[in-house]
Design goal:
Distance between the termini: 14 Å
Helix content: over 70%
Number of domains: 2
Radius of gyration: 25 Å
Number of strands: 0
Strand content: under 5%
Largest sheet: none
Length: about 180
């Protein structure tokens, strides 16, 4: 059970490192609070507590002593609490936020009456301009690019990270209880 907790912990840490790398690469560290409310101290506190708990867990696995196991559980509990607070602020998972924000920005649309449309379609030059404007708007909004399978699965990363954190906590708790008996 202790080794299973370690494997689960390492998988959760790997996904957490992946999300942290994306957050830092998207400029999250340059701002005290990002526009979606993510706080760098909370995020780094979450990661630090989980890493300290992992260190204690490795010491427990090496020594077999119950104290490091309970220290690991003690570090893991507030790490999960901070993780829950970050996921509530950071939902939906901000994958490529700049690209998504650009695609979601509404284009400037002028209302066109039926009469104006009929005149534009009757004139070949105006029809060409209308088609060019429509194509340019569609291409700039990102509608021409199909969404990749990997990109469509990225929002599952925080969910899997959270499930692994809970599994890790349960396995670590059971192994720590087993260590004192």
């Amino acid at each position: 059970m202790a080794v299973a907790a370690l494997v689960s912990w390492l998988l959760a840490e790997s996904l957490g490192a992946y999300m942290l790398r994306i957050w830092v690469a998207s400029g999250g560290i340059r701002q005290r609070h990002t526009r979606d409310g993510m706080s760098a101290p909370v995020l780094f506190g979450h990661a630090s507590l989980a890493a300290c708990g992992l260190s204690c867990w490795v010491i427990f696995l090496i020594t077999g002593a119950a104290v490091p196991a309970w220290l690991a559980v003690g570090f893991l509990a507030p790490a999960i609490g901070l993780g829950v607070s970050t996921v509530t602020v950071w939902t939906p998972y901000p994958v490529r936020r700049a690209a998504r924000g650009a695609a979601a920005a509404p284009a400037t649309v002028r209302p066109i009456s039926d009469e104006m449309l009929a005149r534009a379609l009757a004139d070949e030059d105006m029809t060409a301009m209308l088609v060019d404007d429509l194509l340019a708007g569609a291409l700039s909004a990102g509608h021409a690019r199909p969404r990749s399978r990997a990109r469509s699965l990225e929002p599952l990363v925080p969910a899997v990270h959270g499930v692994l954190a809970l599994v890790t906590f349960l396995l670590a708790m059971l192994a720590a209880i087993d260590a004192i008996t």
